[in-house]
Design a protein that fits this description.
Elements lengths: L4 E6 L2 E6 L11 H16 L5 E6 L4 E3 L4 H6 L3 H19 L5 E5 L2 E3 L1 H8 L2 E5 L3 E3 L13 H9 L1 H10 L2 E2 L1 H7 L4 E3 L4 H14 L2 H10 L3 H6 L3 H19 L4 H14 L3 H16 L2 H14 L17 E4 L3 H12 L4 E4 L3 H22 L3 H8 L2 E4 L10 E4 L5 H12 L7 E4 L6 H5 L8 E6 L8 E6 L5 H13 L3 E6 L6 H17 L4 H11 L5 H8 L1 H14 L8 H7 L12 E4 L2 E5 L2 H6 L9 H20 L6 H12 L8 H8 L1 H15 L7 H5 L5
Parallel strand pairs: 2-3, 3-5, 4-6, 5-7, 6-8, 7-10, 11-12, 11-14, 12-13, 14-15, 15-16, 17-18
Antiparallel strand pairs: 1-2, 8-9, 16-17, 19-20
Helix pairs in contact: 1-3, 3-13, 4-5, 5-6, 5-12, 6-11, 6-12, 11-12, 12-13, 15-16, 16-17, 21-23, 21-24, 21-27, 23-24, 24-25, 27-30
């Protein structure tokens, strides 16, 4: 078996190389751990060593984390605890070596990789390093010592921030909080790590003193170094967690307890508690579902599933400099793709540029990046009111007004200025790609690239194939979306595509429930208790009454089994447009919801209302399941994974449920079909179960 961990000795310092043969990244699986154990034992037996430096030879980074597939396969809590204790033991061998160990970190250092770095005595990071303990995103918490070593290193408050959010820590922040001891450029990292190792051997006290100073200050003294302060800190953290998670995610709450109880005990006692509490968490449905969602997020790396290779997009253009156009231009520039942002008015162009700059500034502030980085990215976006430079672009993304004749006119006009190979992608949310292709000279190079608003935050992109779109175009649009950090799915050209079709059927049904006397506000509350980020009526306000009514009417025309709801039209007739108009189902103050709008109840004209029940929630959710089954039958998408990807990353369907199809499997398709039959007898054809539901016991 090839060795994953090797070392050489250079001037009495062991230089340890991490390199899994044939793999793009190092993963802390059982074989890798076995190699780490073997090398630690060998290093301890070496004579005259004064230090060790550990570095990865992989271009991608240090260690990408633990073996997620192995975690997913565990069904016994005792086995999960045993695996955790074994990992702790092996990393502890490195922590117990009789000389200082320096971890030289570049690129990705995730999960178990970070825990290994924490078990080393000192850390140096390259300027491209990204350090994280993202286990909570998988329904877990660190189990190889992270909950115990990180608080002791950087303090409780900073450790809670990193562990409970599972967020990335970039080099400057890591240095500022003491997570790493030095920063240096990647090309000089090993050399500088050797220098740090010599320094750590000769005079480690001043390095440790510097680290302690970073944890110091009045706040640390008041909160972390006395029992009352710690009690307040952990109480506040718990309240914030409960508010954020709604009680749906057990892992972060349990992690909080493990950190709290371990901090004042010995390290060994804390590690034992970490492993014991992790065992039951690993086998929860939430953990398995979140791992499923992680796998969904990784699927795009396999490509679009078509018989063509993607072309590399080196230059792009965006037509329409509204909020969507400015957001798409910002996304392209963030991906290092130079982009021309065009509109017919210079004021509109400037507005789009301003929007892109605001997004860059917000992201820079979050990462602690310098202002110069914002301007560097903005130089990749050039505004224009003509087609100068379009002769050199590989991709044009159109984001003009949502009217077919306007889009056809724009397509016909821009094609005259594009090279033969250029792709035209429309950002439409509902219009037919096939009909748009009728206006094209090169229809095979026309497709859809449906971004969701806000562009910089919403992960999903629907890549839409018209009747004449060729495989290379689909492959290129898919690959470009992935390069830009998005999660794409390939969708057929059907009304509403995938996400809007499912979502609008759900919103229409919510309108029917409200007209039947269900308290709409209680329905919103119940859907949020289910785990959605907002209820259907709050979502209608976000979308806008006018847009919701228009898309609803379009889908009702396309699918005659859907029944229109007049609630949005009635609201519009009374001047209620949703958040953008200051009033909708809710009142808004400076764009933020400020309580239910009582005027809505007058529109409903009901003598009495009742609170929403679990049966009402079933009616909404089972209808979406039925529509998802229809989409699979019609080949709108190819797999249940596509539906779950669209719902989780495009609508915020609760990740801890794993996606709509995975949730439906847990409910039981037989149960759902029986309930749909009952609803069809009461409410009509939209509830008649799809054949797929009647003929299968599971989506997966």
């Amino acid at each position: 078996m090839s060795e994953r961990v090797t070392y050489r000795i250079e001037d009495r310092i062991a230089v340890v190389s991490l390199d899994t043969p044939g793999a793009r990244v190092n993963v802390l699986d059982s074989d890798f751990l076995a190699d780490l154990e073997r090398i630690a034992i060998e290093l301890k037996a070496e004579k005259n060593l004064i230090a060790a430096v550990v570095a990865s030879t992989k271009e991608a980074g240090f260690i990408a984390g633990a073996d997620i597939d192995a975690i997913e396969s565990v069904r016994d809590p005792a086995e999960a605890t045993r695996l955790s204790r074994e990992g702790q033991r092996i990393l502890g061998l490195w922590n117990d070596l009789p000389f200082p160990v320096v971890a030289a970190i570049h690129g990705h250092c995730m999960g178990g990789g970070t825990e290994f770095a924490l078990a080393c005595d000192f850390r140096i990071a390259a300027d491209d390093a990204v350090i994280a303990l993202p286990e909570v995103k998988l329904g877990l918490f660190p189990g190889f010592g992270g909950t115990q070593r990180l608080p002791r290193l950087v303090g409780i408050e900073k450790a809670l921030d990193i562990i409970l959010k599972g967020r990335n820590v970039h080099p400057r922040e890591a240095l500022a909080c003491g997570l790493v001891d030095r920063l240096d450029a990647e090309d000089a990292l090993t050399e500088k790590a050797l220098a740090l190792a010599r320094e750590a051997y000769g005079s480690p006290d001043h390095i440790l003193a510097e680290r302690r100073r970073k944890r110091g200050g009045l706040k640390a003294l008041l909160l972390e170094r006395n029992s009352l302060g710690r009690m307040i800190l952990f109480k506040t953290a718990r309240e914030n967690l409960e508010k954020k998670t709604g009680g749906h995610y057990p892992a972060p709450l349990k992690a909080l307890e493990v950190i709290r109880d371990g901090f004042t005990d010995t390290l060994e006692a804390g590690l034992k508690r970490e492993a014991e509490e992790l065992g039951p968490i690993v086998v929860t449905a939430e953990c398995k579902n979140l791992i499923h969602v992680y796998h969904l997020s990784q699927r795009p790396k396999k490509g679009a599933g078509v018989a063509a290779d993607p072309e590399r997009v080196a230059r792009a253009a965006v037509l329409g400099a509204g909020v969507m156009g400015g957001g798409i231009a910002q996304l392209l520039a963030a991906g290092e793709i130079p982009v021309r942002l065009k509109d017919i008015e210079s004021e509109a162009v400037q507005s789009g540029l301003d929007h892109a700059r605001r997004v860059f500034r917000r992201r820079a502030e979050k990462k602690g990046a310098a202002a110069a980085q914002v301007e560097k990215k903005m130089r990749l976006i050039t505004g224009t009111t003509d087609y100068d430079g379009f002769q050199e672009v590989d991709l044009v993304i159109e984001a003009v007004v949502e009217k077919m004749e306007v889009k056809k006119s724009v397509l016909a006009e821009v094609e005259e200025h594009l090279p033969e190979h250029a792709i035209f992608a429309t950002n439409t949310s509902a219009l037919s790609i096939t009909e748009l292709q009728s206006a094209a000279q090169r229809p095979q190079r026309v497709g859809g690239m449906h971004y969701f608003n806000p562009v910089d935050r919403m992960p999903l992109v629907e890549v839409i194939r018209g009747e004449q779109t060729d495989d290379r175009t689909i492959a290129t649009l898919f690959d470009t979306a992935r390069r830009l950090g998005k999660t794409p799915i390939v969708v057929a050209d059907r009304p509403g595509f995938l996400v809007n079709r499912l979502l609008v059927s759900y919103l229409l049904e919510a309108g029917h429930l409200a007209r039947e006397g269900i308290d709409w506000n209680s329905l919103d509350r119940r859907m949020m208790e289910f785990g959605l980020p907002m209820g259907p009526f709050r979502l209608i306000d976000e979308v806008g009454m006018d847009i919701g009514a228009e898309v609803g009417a379009t889908l009702c025309q396309a699918f005659d089994y859907l029944v229109p709801s007049d609630l949005m039209e009635r609201a519009m007739g009374n001047g209620l447009l949703g958040r953008k108009g200051g009033k909708g189902f809710y009142n808004y103050d400076k764009g933020k919801a400020a309580g239910p709008n009582p005027d809505i109840n007058e529109l409903l004209d009901l003598e009495k209302q009742r609170d929403a029940t679990s049966e009402d929630l079933q009616r909404l959710l089972y209808l979406m399941v039925n529509e998802a089954a229809r989409c699979l039958e019609e080949k709108v998408v190819a797999t249940p994974e596509d539906i779950d990807t669209g719902m989780v990353f495009g609508t915020g369907f609760p990740p801890f449920h794993g996606g709509l199809c995975r949730w439906a499997d847990r409910e039981g398709l037989e149960r759902i079909t029986k309930r749909l039959d009952d609803l069809a007898r009461q409410h009509g054809a939209r509830f008649v179960p799809a054949d797929l539901l009647k003929n299968k016991t599971r989506f997966y």
